[in-house]
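Q: Given only this backbone (440 positions), what sequence would you predict?
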């Protein structure tokens, strides 16, 4: 079967014919050894325009965009309907912006917790990875992960009957470890942080010749996540002005840029989103690097100047990338967009989750609380403008993190008899829940 795509080295432009060639060379450019390649589809992209604009179509998964994903034979598709998720309007945040900052904006929540595989925005990446690996007859795979990608890969690779070795850092959430184990996939819990987990995973890959997922710039992950751009255009008819996401290694923004690159010439959008990316304050090396660069007027080489946080102690291990090797890619993307990299106090994560659940009945997960928290910080810093549409990436739901769920028990009253009870009125909690956000 003739391949509909090829990979192109982002550094030297060398063409790699397909994933078989890319894998044979251990996911590096054969000419310059660079690990960052992009997938190109030399065919006619008019079909993509049709897919995005045809209102009569009812997509069932990200493979709706099959012709623009790096799988050649549809029989190799592994899917559970991920990637086609709702965009909700969160008016309570619009009202807050109006009342407190006199800003008129539209706030949209991109509900990745609705993904049917494992309920995070890693499901699209894992579904495509399972399909690509199946097509290339790969039987063993390895991944280093802070948690969610491990779970998603464990799930989808099980469906493809591929064995997976998962390297998680010491502080990864128990629920993630159990999730991976439940499929019979092997967990290696590394005594150390995510950086050490990545290091041992690379050694394991080299020793046994087993393919290792390529991290935040892995073309498979990027190709899967780029479909969010197509989806926003299909659903909304335009791209949001601002994209807010909690930031670990930055596959999200890298993929959005790739999605925009793919369709630039089709005239489907006026401008790309401005990126507002948020890190938890106990593991925020990119935010620190960004602040310093901004203060110094972005001097030459600013994008390579970043701190490394060894063994970060954070309540949100999903976002615990202490050594931000992708900052030289993410920093310039954010700068070009006119965006910002911020921090949010992670001790306030449970307050955000309670507020969102009270106002919308949506139980968001830890990484998502950092994104919503970032919206509050962005307003306070004057980063949201009148008339803008904001897309908040709700990357995961609360059921991914029982530890956060238990902190939602704030309405309980212990009783012995009916004499201790009175009729309930849930509005009594509202003022208390909002108090925190009056002066962040
Ligand atoms: C729910 C959720 N949100 C955000 C992120 C950060 O993703 P990115 O790779 O774009 O930094 C992750 C994973 O790291 C995640 O699981
Ligand atoms: Zn190259």
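A: Predicted residues:
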């Amino acid at each position: 079967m003739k391949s509909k795509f090829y990979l192109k080295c982002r550094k030297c432009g060398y063409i790699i014919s397909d994933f078989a060639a890319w894998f044979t060379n251990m996911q590096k450019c054969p000419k310059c050894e660079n690990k960052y390649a992009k997938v190109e589809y030399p065919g006619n992209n008019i079909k993509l325009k049709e897919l995005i604009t045809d209102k009569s179509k009812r997509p069932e998964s990200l493979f709706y965009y099959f012709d623009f994903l790096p799988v050649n034979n549809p029989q190799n598709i592994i899917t559970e309907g991920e990637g086609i998720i709702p965009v909700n309007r969160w008016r309570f945040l619009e009202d807050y912006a109006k009342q407190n900052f006199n800003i008129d904006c539209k706030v949209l929540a991109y509900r990745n917790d609705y993904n049917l595989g494992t309920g995070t925005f890693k499901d699209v990446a894992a579904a495509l990875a399972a399909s690509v690996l199946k097509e290339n007859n790969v039987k063993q795979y390895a991944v280093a992960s802070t948690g969610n990608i491990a779970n998603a890969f464990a799930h989808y690779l099980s469906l493809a009957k591929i064995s997976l070795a998962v390297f998680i850092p010491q502080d990864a959430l128990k629920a993630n470890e159990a999730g991976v184990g439940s499929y019979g996939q092997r967990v290696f819990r590394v005594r150390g942080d995510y950086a050490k987990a990545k290091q041992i995973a690379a050694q394991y890959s080299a020793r046994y010749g087993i393919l290792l997922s390529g991290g935040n710039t892995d073309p498979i992950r990027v190709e899967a996540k780029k479909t969010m751009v197509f989806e926003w255009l299909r659903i909304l008819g335009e791209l949001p002005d601002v994209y807010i996401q909690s930031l670990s290694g930055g596959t999200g923004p890298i993929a959005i840029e790739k999605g925009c690159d793919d369709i630039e010439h089709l005239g489907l959008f006026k401008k790309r989103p401005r990126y507002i990316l948020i890190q938890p304050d106990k593991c925020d090396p990119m935010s620190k690097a960004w602040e310093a660069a901004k203060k110094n007027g972005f001097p030459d080489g600013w994008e390579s100047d970043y701190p490394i946080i060894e063994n970060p102690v954070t309540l949100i291990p999903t976002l615990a990338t202490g050594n931000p090797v992708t900052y030289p890619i993410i920093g310039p993307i954010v700068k070009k967009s006119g965006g910002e990299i911020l921090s949010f106090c992670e001790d306030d994560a449970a307050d955000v989750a309670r507020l969102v659940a009270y106002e919308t009945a949506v139980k968001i997960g830890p990484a998502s609380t950092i994104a919503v928290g970032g919206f509050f910080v962005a307003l306070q810093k004057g980063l949201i403008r009148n008339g803008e549409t904001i897309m908040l990436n709700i990357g995961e739901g609360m059921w991914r993190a029982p530890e956060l769920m238990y902190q939602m028990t704030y309405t309980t009253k212990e009783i012995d008899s009916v004499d201790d009870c009175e009729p309930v009125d849930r509005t009594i909690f509202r003022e208390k829940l909002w108090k925190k956000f009056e002066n962040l």
